[in-house]
Amino acid sequence: MNGENISFWEKLGKIDRRWIFLIIGLVVFIPIAFGLRMTVHVSPAVKSAYDTINSLPEGSVVMISIDYDAASMPELQPMLKAILRHCFDKNLKVVLINFWPLGLPIGNQGLEEVAKEYGKVYGVDYMNLGYRPGDIAVMLRMGTEIRSVFYGDIKGTPLDSLPMMKNIHNYDDIAVVVGLEAGSMGDAWVQYVNARFKQDLILGVTAVMAAGVYPYLQAGQIKGLIGGLKGAAEYEKLVNHPDFGHIGMASQSWAHVTIILFIILGNIGYFMERRRKRGL
Amino acid sequence: MIEALSIWVAAGLTLAIMSFLYGDNPVYKFAEHLYVGYSAGYWLIYTWHFTIKLMVIQPIAEKQPGAVWLVIPLFFGALMLTRWFPRIAWISRWSIAFTVGIGAGLTLTGAVHGYIIPQVKATILPLWTGNGLTSFNNFVIVVGVITTLIYFFFSKPHTGVLGKTSKVGILFIMVAFGASFGYTVMARISLLIGRLDFLWSSILKLVQFF
After folding, report:
1. Which single residue of A24, A73, A214, A272 has CA 20 to 30 Å from A97?
2. Is residue B63 part of a domain?
3. Is the model's pLDDT at A274 over the cut of 90?
4. Which of B46, B111, B191 sits opposite A101 (nearest CB)?
5. Which domain holds residue B195?
6. Nearest-CB residue to B122 (from A136, A219, A255)
7. Would B131 be classed as within a structural domain?
């Protein structure tokens, strides 16, 4: 009996990794294909982000920074859409800005899609500044005058010809900056814009980065934190508009359970093998 | 028709990249090379359009206020091209010095003003607040920071009290790594969800199309 067990664990330890890929693939795919859903609980960090935007008076300006590209789209695009829905629902003005050039079409796509849902008008209710190289230098100069770095919008239209931009010159005219981050720009927003200009910030980050961003939240340097697809699903729940975040949560949860089982099995296998080698 | 074709191309390329999970193959190689070439082309256009044309040529051509000052970064940028000529390549060091100087200055102020000071301030917490849960949280933060810092204190051997304290620090570091790894797994699964959802919706769209 003992010999059979050892043989099983030994076989398990040498299993072709492609079987694991297949199992994970199926576990992720089945909930998507069958439309399975799971309950989403809202965390204090996401609630805080929501409350910050929710407390803004009508007509306030929210700047959303698109600092990601297609590789992080599944996590950050649902956040963008949920936040835009919240902003447009509350009649807030939205200014999009891009520090990742490859994020330019992605951010614009999300903006136009949600603006159309709410019947918002470009230049009056929302606008897109586009992309400028220079990262931190651009952030710092916007503290004095946005026009010193953005001569026009994404299409080159002069900023002063857009009605909503007439009274928007620097961070004093922006209520909250929301940074959707897949890289180091989030740190720059905190360390330069929040520290120097006392600008209120919310960060929406990929799950990989979330653990590293929590200290900013604990220190009060950011008003809220939306982490990964789970964070996006939480925000979707708060704005009462389930979308891709909700679709992904069942797959995410089942994939996590499967991975935990694999880790447990792998550890049992390791200890059984070690025991066998020691001749116990 | 064009939409259906673009879905076919995108879904096909996704499957081509995913085929690497089974093993290296020519279809994967084709998709990989296509991606590298496309990315290089995309970056070239972006650099030309957003940096050279929009930030340099256009302001000078339109005689925008202050455009004359662009001559300075343009000059230093041009000096970088001397790296192609080994005999005068040393001139490019002026541009590098310029960039490093600005970078160091910005990073230093950002790190001190925007990271170290606020984070240190956020760590100086009362260990008793009157609320048990908040006090416990503060205690964990303070102990975690102190023991982790002690772990990275290498000027004395980690024995005795120092050794025991640094072991507590290791515990906190391990918890941080665990949280970070957990989030990383979550992120990778999210990407897979994104792709599989795209593939599934593509199939549904194509079924509707035909």
Report:
1. A214
2. no
3. no
4. B46
5. 126-210
6. A219
7. yes
In sequence order, what are the beta bridge partners of A203?
A179, A225
Q: Is residue B99 part of a domain?
A: no
Alpha carbon distance A232, B90 (integer Å):
50
Has residue B12 been placed in a domain? no
B146 CA to centre of own chain:
28
Determine contact: B115 vs chain A, CB below 8 A: yes
Contact predicate A64/A178, CB 8 Å: yes
Report the topology of domain A44-241.
Answer: Rossmann fold (3.40.50)
Strand ranges for A99-175 from DSSP E: 126-131
Q: What is the pLDDT of residues A145-202, one digit of tens each?
A: 999 888 889 988 999 999 999 999 999 999 999 999 999 999 999 999 999 999 999 9
Question: Rounded to an integer, what distance in angstroms lies between the CA atom of residue B1 and that of residue B24?
Answer: 32
Query: How many residues in total does chain A contain?
Result: 280
Pairs of residues, one from chain A and one from chain B, whose beta carbons lie less than 8 Å apart: 130
Q: How many domains does chain B have?
A: 1
- The DSSP code for B84 is G
Q: Which residue of A has its CA nearest to B50?
A: A132
Q: Which long-range contacts (CB under 8 A, 24 or more apart) does B82-88 make?
A: none
Query: For residue B187, what are its two tokens?
Result: 């992120």
Contact predicate A103/A68, CB 8 Å: yes
pLDDT, one tens digit per residue, over A22-80 is 999 999 999 999 988 889 999 999 999 999 999 999 999 999 999 999 889 999 999 99
pLDDT band at A1 (very low <50, low <70, confident <90, very high): very low
